[in-house]
Design brief:
The complex is a heterodimer of chains A (286) and B (433). Chain A has 286 residues and is α/β, with parallel strands linked by helices. Helices cover 49% and strands 15% of the residues of chain A. In chain A, a hairpin with a 3-residue loop joins strand 6 and strand 7. In chain B, strands 8-7-6-9-10-11 form a six-stranded mixed beta sheet. A three-stranded antiparallel beta sheet of chain B has the order 2-4-3. A two-stranded antiparallel ribbon of chain B has the order 1-5. The chains are: A alpha/beta (286), B alpha/beta (433).
Chain lengths: 286, 433
């Protein structure tokens, strides 16, 4: 039975991932309808983490396919193990045997998508940063995403016994094909609300005082409103809190520690300058 | 899976998923009215009404330009039928997650949803500020006023604004056509290439093509007779052309657009063209017509800010703020056709140029002013951004453009950001020689 959004939220929180109602509903629907879930959002809002946490919650294997330009079917679906086939021919020859069928499962190299189809108990498949792959690659994905099957000319069609849970992520550097989007459920992960961000900090930075966490979250929320080249995500604010905490434990007063650890929050020279220009209003009550 | 129509509440017979039937009895009139189907034959009562209302909502979405594929609508009906949403918020998320395909459509989606389901409680938008501020390329996000929205062929907007600003760019002369042919022939050799990440079989290369060798070996009883290799063939980089159409360039604009047209003709798959004046317009599609005069006519219908003022800095920043546009500049040869005369504070323009330069493979600036032998990049804006440029050349018409295109290979093979060094040298024609 598919857990409802409330149960999901609790299960995810148990693994240290605090999802809002929208994301929980999205995961719930993806499980219910058995559809791939396409997650978009700015870098650092925890898109990739969704798959990792899902794998821990469900106890299924996490299979990850990192996309890059030039990714092709040989790296994503399957490839025949040519050296092994050649050796097989040689061995058969030297023993004077029949070579037999060379296109059998044992000569097949299973790449992530085929592995996901072949996983007996099912799996969580993460297709990460699909926008980095070129658009030709999306065509390879269509058959897989639509029916969770892969056609191998020499063997026939391989169908998933237990459909995998598929999560795709994209940073929106280019527009994905309509055909791909049509096969997926879509969810945009926004930056977290202050309450949720506090919760995340509390869970991932043990030892951070409540008051300090409050101020830090306020500062991050204000920073995100500046016209930055790259707005800090959750990953960055956690790093910032950790860095500042380490400095504070080393003896720096808290506000100074916050400023000195700023490089963990903002990773662009221009943004840093812009931020320092607004330092007073940003950090007054941090 | 149970049949959706067998589900408990609102789906009713309509959920069987065929005709989007029925006028919605309690909904508002949709913006783009659907042709009214046969009258709803659903049973009277709340379930039938709810189903009709849902169909009305789907039709209104289509009217608002957000058509949902049948499979997506079926998804929504299925989840609603299987487990009726406990509240309005849940219904919102059900509908949004199953139907929405792109975050830039979110504001329109929310408007339709609110109109159909939330009239009683309008003060409860589920969307937080972050959602609105999300990088919504081309979308009416808070960061981009709608006037900067780039929508080729958006006839409604164009026609309301075209009472001023649009301009006839005239016809191409005989001599002009000859130079344009020469330009079109010259572009390919001038465009930079990088090595593709998709390997192709080749006679030589850095990897063995085991697959090919194996297939061939089949014909010779497993004997490998010839080896083939895999190589990374060259792949042309993108060419991004930004054309200034403001009033100060009035006399040059048609020729500058013709130059862009030749580039688009020479490398159609790899070229993107934008114009900027007071707003940013993507004209790649409009300019793609094979005949230059026809292409320029469609551009003039689209570009409503021709001969107006300039805000180069704001236009370039608007370009870069859109992540999808900024991605076009990444690793590309970026050519800006502009005089660089920024009226106001030059800081935004200098910042934007620096970022363009970092994003792109090379940044080339072609200014009509630089054709004059006495020109010096001495205005505050130009001198401040010179260190970001790889080349500053003079282009005021087709002939000078041809010269500059011939000069591109040298710019591409040379070190980066050398424009300042060239122009600080005392030669009168420093950078253009």
């Amino acid at each position: 039975m598919t857990p409802d959004p409330g149960e999901l939220s609790a299960a995810l929180a148990g693994q240290g991932y605090f999802a809002d109602e929208g994301l929980c509903t999205a995961i719930h629907l993806a499980l219910r309808l058995g559809r791939p879930l396409l997650l978009e959002g700015e870098p650092g809002v925890g898109k990739t983490e969704v798959a990792a946490v899902l794998s821990r919650v469900t106890g299924l294997e996490l299979i990850r396919l990192q996309c890059f330009e030039g990714l092709d079917s040989g790296q994503a679906l399957y490839e025949w193990d040519y050296p092994k086939q050649l050796l097989q021919v040689r061995v058969a020859e030297s023993r004077g045997q029949e070579v037999g069928d060379l296109y059998r499962e044992e000569f097949l190299l299973r790449r992530p998508l085929l592995r996901a189809v072949r996983a007996e108990r099912g799996a969580v498949l993460l297709i990460d940063e699909i926008d980095r792959a070129d658009s030709e690659f999306e065509a390879f994905l269509l058959e897989f995403l639509g029916d969770f099957q892969i056609t191998i000319p020499e063997l026939g069609t391989v169908r998933a016994g237990t459909p995998p849970i598929v999560v795709l992520t994209s940073n929106r550097t280019r527009e994905l094909h309509d055909a791909l989007k049509r096969r997926c459920l879509y969810h945009w992960i926004a930056f977290p609300e202050p309450d949720r961000e506090r919760e995340i900090l509390r869970a991932s930075v043990p030892g951070l005082e409540e008051r300090a966490a409050d101020g830090l979250v306020r500062a991050v929320q204000r920073v995100r409103r500046l016209p930055l080249l790259k707005r800090p995500g959750i990953a960055e604010s956690v790093e910032w809190a950790r860095g500042a905490l380490a400095l504070a434990e080393g003896g720096s007063p808290w506000p100074v520690a916050l400023r000195r650890a700023l490089g963990l929050l903002i990773k662009d020279e221009e943004d840093t300058r812009l931020l320092l220009g607004h330092a007073e209003e940003l950090f007054t009550d941090a | 899976m149970p049949d959706p129509s067998a589900g408990p509440v609102p789906a009713g017979p309509a959920a069987a998923g065929r005709a989007p039937a029925g006028p919605a009895p309690i909904g508002p009139v949709p913006a783009g009215p659907e042709p009214a189907g046969p009258a709803a034959v659903g049973p009277a009562g709340p379930a039938g009404l709810a189903a009709d209302h849902l169909w009305g909502f789907l039709a209104a979405l289509r009217g608002a330009g957000l058509p949902a594929a049948p499979a997506k609508r079926a998804d929504l009906l299925r989840v609603i039928a299987e487990s009726p949403p406990p509240g309005m918020a849940a219904l919102y998320w059900y509908a949004r997650i199953t139907l929405l395909q792109d975050v830039s459509d979110l504001p329109a989606f929310d408007r339709v949803f609110d109109a159909w389901f939330r009239r009683a409680a309008p003060g409860e938008p589920p969307i937080r500020e972050e959602d609105e501020r999300a990088p919504a390329p081309g979308g009416p996000g808070a960061d981009h006023p709608p006037s900067h929205e780039v929508r080729p062929g958006d006839g409604i907007e164009a026609s309301t604004l075209s009472t001023y600003g649009t301009r006839d760019f005239g016809r191409t002369g005989e001599r002009g056509r000859a130079i344009m042919r020469a330009l079109e022939a010259a572009w390919p050799a001038a465009l930079p290439a990088t090595r593709s990440r998709r390997r192709r079989p080749a006679r030589s290369g850095d990897r063995l093509d085991v697959r090919h060798a194996w297939r061939r070996a089949h014909r010779h009883d497993g004997e490998i007779i010839e080896l083939r290799h895999l190589d990374r063939p060259p792949r042309p980089r993108r060419l991004l052309i930004l054309v200034d159409v403001s009033g100060s360039l009035r006399q040059h604009t048609p020729d500058l657009l013709r130059v862009a047209h030749t580039a688009l003709r020479a490398a159609p798959a790899r070229t993107e063209v934008f114009t900027f004046g007071t707003r940013l317009t993507r004209i790649t599609a409009a300019l793609a017509h094979p005949y230059a005069d026809q292409a320029l006519r469609s551009v003039s219908a689209l570009v409503t800010d021709a001969d107006g003022g300039t805000a180069i800095g704001a236009a370039l920043e608007g370009f870069l703020a859109n992540t999808r546009f900024a991605a076009l500049a990444r690793g590309a040869l970026v050519i800006v056709l502009s005089d660089g005369l920024e009226r106001g504070d030059p800081a935004p323009m200098v910042r934007a140029t620096a970022r363009l330069s970092r994003l792109g493979h090379r940044l080339v600036w072609w200014s009509p002013l630089a054709c004059s032998p006495t020109y010096r990049p001495a205005t505050r804006a130009m001198s401040a951004q010179l260190p970001s440029l790889d080349h500053l050349g003079g282009v005021r018409d087709l002939a000078t453009a041809l010269e500059e295109v011939h000069r591109l290979p040298a710019v591409l093979s040379g070190p980066r950001r050398t424009a300042a060094r060239h122009w600080s040298a005392q030669h009168p024609m420093g950078a253009t020689r």
